[in-house]
Amino acid sequence: NLLVIGSSNTDMVVQVDHFPKPGETLLGGDFFMNPGGKGANQAVAAVRLGGKVAFIGKVGKDIFGKETLENLLREGINIDGISQDEVHPSGVAQITVDKNGENCIVVASGANMALGAGDMEKNSKLIHQAEIILLQLEIPMDTVSLVVKIGNEAGKKVILNPAPAQALDDEVYAGLFAITPNESETTLLSRIQVKDEPSAAKAASFFHEKGVKVVVITLGAKGAYLSAGEYKGIVPAPKVHAVDTTAAGDTFNGALAVGISKGISLREAVEFANRAAAYSVTKKGAQSSVPRLSEIE
Ligand code: ADP
């Protein structure tokens, strides 16, 4: 049983020729809407890749929240832990993409930032049923700290994808089974610039010294650096033609959690995550690019 506690958003995307300057009104391309949010993306990845997944999160009492619930339910995720906030609107991300594929994103977190201690208490049954808890940093840090503490005390494996990167307390590190930063998140947290295997090993030592058991640093097209008792080194990703790297990290994390929940070795779990994430970069969009198990086997 895998439990994702995190954010859900609706991505609102417009293609532009160039980014507008302050005060400028721009006519863009056709608008399109996509389900997103790191928590929801990772939950969708996990369920499509064969996991049994529950989600704890918060949406607003609006059309976007309703769509989010329907979407996650359709995917086969247990949504009993998602509540509708009376005050805050659902999370929304306004995304503009220019002709070079660069993006500018503004996230209005809304209800995601209202996910708190009361919600964890209400859903303590879901938390206790889980074997693995997967977290990101698009919900309040106090909630993340609380979940790490509860999860750890109950003997759960807590995996933190520290994205978007923020400084973490020592108690959070000490309660983690695994941490999964990308290169820039690793640099922000450890102050070590990751560029090759030796620097990744140094950054991994930083996390281990804080008490994290398993360190997985994702390295884009290169794959991921795994550091755990049994294995230290780069696990390469399959070579693919990259089209859109949106949600590569989310696919990786959802897949990694599934691998760990199935009890395969960590090295095999990282290989599986690389395979799923590499597949996702060959397709456009966030959840639309996440593969099903049959597609990567
Ligand atoms: P994020 O998307 O969070 O910045 P990364 O860029 O490190 O994280 O990518 C996450 C994972 O996605 C990598 O570990 C790898 O498995 C896969 N991946 C990303 N880019 C590529 C690529 N160009 N080719 C193959 N796999 C990729």
User: At CATH's second level, what is the architecture?
Assistant: 3-Layer(aba) Sandwich
Percent helix, as a range, is: 25-40%
CATH level 1 class label: Alpha Beta
Bound molecules: adenosine-5'-diphosphate
Which geometry do the CA atoms define? globular
Helix/strand order: EEEHEHEEEHHEHEHEHHEEEHHH
For the CA atoms, what is the radius of gyration? 18 Å
Let me know the CATH homologous superfamily: Ribokinase
Q: Which structural class fits the helix and strand makeup?
A: alpha/beta
Termini separation: 22 Å
Largest sheet: 9 strands, mixed
Structure explained in plain terms:
The protein has 297 residues and is an alpha/beta fold. The protein has one domain (2-7, 37-89, 112-296): Ribokinase (UDP-N-acetylmuramoyl-L-alanine:D-glutamate ligase, 3-Layer(aba) Sandwich), CATH 3.40.1190.20. It has helices spanning 38-48, 63-75, 117-122, 124-129, 141-153, 170-174, 183-190, 197-209, 248-261, 266-281, 293-296, and strands at residues 2-5, 9-15, 31-36, 53-60, 78-85, 91-97, 103-108, 132-135, 157-160, 178-179, 214-218, 224-228, 231-235. Strands 5-4-1-8-9-10-11-12-13 form a nine-stranded mixed beta sheet, sandwiched between helices. Strand 4, helix 2 and strand 5 form a beta-alpha-beta unit. Helix 1 packs across helix 9 (248-261). The longest helix has 16 residues, at 266-281. The chain is globular and about 55 Å long. The model has no long low-confidence stretch (mean pLDDT 96). Adenosine-5'-diphosphate (ADP) binds next to helix 9 and helix 10. Residues 182, 218-221, 223-224, 237, 240, 242, 245, 248-249, 252, 274, 277-278, 281 line the site of adenosine-5'-diphosphate.
